[in-house]
Amino acid sequence: MTGRLYVDPGRCIGCRACEHACSECPDHAGHSMIHLDVFDRATSVQTAPTVCMHCAEPACAAVCPADAIKIDAEGIVLTAAAERCIGCGSCALACPFGVPKIDAERELMTKCDLCYHRTSVGDAPMCATVCPSGALFFCTPEEALDQRRARPLDVFHFDDRVVRTRNLIMAPAGIDAILVGDGAGTVRSRAEQHLEEAIW
């Protein structure tokens, strides 16, 4: 697989075409594995698609007690295997991007698997094929640099932790990493602190 998925939040128009296309993926049984984030509605109309970033060292897989989350040779973090997932929610707590969702009725974690059946044979994931504004696009790194002024980044700093990802965020030129948090620290629940110790 030579293509990569790029997210350009500044281009998102909130149309939700990505969510609908994702739910139509044959492997998803009518459920969207991605979602649209809406920022402060009172002051902004900005939205952004939230997809799994496919971390190089995925926290979701590290904390899964049932070993239900596998990573393929290309670095794709697959959605939880239905026959193993116990729906405990550890992955949802551990993910720094807030991606995994727990389907309580099915006792199953679901998340973007980059349309594995498509991308494994070189096709773009469903979300990228329908995005009208180019907020989601699938191409080679060379094509991404050629087509956009923004720079693709795969390094995120969550306070003092560095997370590298397979998918990339388009950021203004001159930025070397995306900083999340203000460095002041975040008050976390006891469960989250326990998960942090297990991951890091």
* Total tally of structural domains: 1
Radius of gyration: 17 Å
Structural class: alpha/beta
| CATH topology call | Alpha-Beta Plaits
Can you identify the CATH class?
A: Alpha Beta
Question: Can you count the beta strands?
Answer: 9
Strand content is 15-25%
Order of helices and strands: EHEEHHEEHHEHEEEH
CATH-scheme architecture: 2-Layer Sandwich
In DSSP terms, counting alpha (H) and pi (I) runs of 4 or more, how many helices? Answer: 7
Helix content range: 10-25%
End-to-end Cα distance: 30 Å
Shape from CA axes?
A: globular
Poorly predicted regions are: 183-187
* Largest sheet: number of strands, sense, barrel closure: 5 strands, mixed
Please provide a written account of the structure.
The protein is an alpha/beta fold and 200 residues long. It has one domain: Alpha-Beta Plaits, CATH 3.30.70.20. Helices cover 22% and strands 22% of the residues. It has seven helices and nine strands; from the N terminus they run E-H-E-E-H-H-E-E-H-H-E-H-E-E-E-H. It has helices spanning 17-23, 59-63, 90-94, 116-119, 126-130, 141-147, 190-199, and strands at residues 4-7, 35-38, 47-50, 101-103, 108-110, 136-139, 151-158, 161-171, 178-180. A hairpin with an 8-residue loop joins strand 2 (35-38) and strand 3. The longest helix is centred in the C-terminal third of the chain and has 10 residues, at 190-199. It is globular, with a radius of gyration of 17 Å. Mean pLDDT is 85; it is low at 183-187.
